[in-house]
Amino acid sequence: MSIFEIIGAVFLLIGSIFLFLGGLGIFRMPDVYNRLQAGTKATTLGGMSLILGVGFLMVETNWAWMVKAIIIVIFIAFSNPISSHALARAMYKRKRYPIITSKDENMDAYREVNENEKKEEDA
Amino acid sequence: MRKFLVILILAVLGFYLFEAFSGLGLGFPRFEHGVKDYYLDKTVSELHVANTVTSIVVSFRGFDTLGEVTVLFLAVSALGSVLYKRRHDVGSRSILFASSGIVRSGSKLLFPAIILLGVYIFIHGHLTPGGGFQGGAIIATGFLLMLLAYENFRVSHHVLSYVESLAGIIFVVIGLLGFIDGGTFLQNFLPSGILNELFSGGVIGIIYVMVGFKVAAELTGLIYSVLHEKD
């Protein structure tokens, strides 16, 4: 077992742990925003680690796998956060506000702006 | 009484399902004298194509694929004719609010990568899983991303229809060239090349590239006309 295979196995383990935590977070969290946060953060790191791990496992037989893996990692690093940002923003604009248990009224300061924006558009 | 009836119906259904599936002999070859052996043998030995599914879709049943592409074209033209009247008031895209700056700059970065992925998938259709239809659909999602991110992003219907018609014409012309060389429609007339290399499989690669262009143009036009529908 070469050093690259060990590194690849460690990456695979990290990736699967993070993907498991992401699934657990989606299952356990109360509202859309928390679920998006759990899902996106965990699947970004988990998916990147898994694909890098595959690249390291194959780097001795065919180095082209590593290049492809790095390209896919860059793609995930862009696409995953952007898509979850768009989802969260769309939810907020449609007035599905996050659950806030705190008594502090200024906790969600953007809510007022959001309500007024909609009124201006209607008027 | 109702529960009894339900159980009775389920029992009858289950009996017939069991009867139907019990005679199948799962796991054993059922068609001893079918065409499967012919396909599996000829794919590698004669056509030099690594992907058996591609060789069946594009070469052995290429005429069927031409029909499928035509069906897609028909569906897109039907949708376009239904939505035609509403397309006069251009500039009104059915989007509720403008997308944020992150989505805008991000989709500018991701758009070329998505197009490249689609092109890769339909160019390597005869080597790896995937092909013209899948690659074309991926390219159309790239255009969908740009249409959602930028309100003033326009796709020229003229260019789309030219690309689509040209791809369809090249498909049919390649099929007809088979008449001149071999004697049947879609006969392979190019050198087959070496198995597992990019330039192998004769006309299969060219046909899949054309299918990819055609599907991409059709789906992009479809998305564009649906997005511009005004209630």
Account of the protein in words:
- The complex is a heterodimer of chains A (123) and B (231).
- By secondary structure, chain A is mainly alpha-helical.
- Chain A has one domain.
- Chain A contains four helices and no strands.
- In chain B, 66% of the residues lie in helices and 0% in strands.
- Chain B has eight helices and no strands.
- Chain B has helices at residues 2-22, 36-45, 52-60, 62-82, 101-123, 132-149, 157-181, 203-227.
- The mean pLDDT of chain B is 84.
- At the A-B interface, α3 of A face α5 of B.
Low-confidence stretches of chain A: none
Alpha-beta content class of chain A: mainly alpha
Order of helices and strands of chain B: HHHHHHHH
List the quaternary state of the chains.
heterodimer
Q: Find the structural class of chain B using helix and strand composition.
A: mainly alpha
Please describe the structure with a list of short key phrases separated by commas or semicolons.
heterodimer; A: 123 residues; mainly alpha; 78% helix; B: 231 residues; 8 helices
Short structural description:
The complex is a heterodimer of chains A (123) and B (231). Chain A has helices spanning 3-28, 32-58, 64-93, 110-122.
Topology, element by element:
The complex is a heterodimer of chains A (123) and B (231).
Chain A: H1 3-28, H2 32-58, H3 64-93, H4 110-122
Helix pairs in contact in A: 1-2, 2-3
Chain B: H1 2-22, H2 36-45, H3 52-60, H4 62-82, H5 101-123, H6 132-149, H7 157-181, H8 203-227
Helix pairs in contact in B: 2-3, 3-4, 3-8, 4-8, 5-6, 5-8, 6-8, 7-8
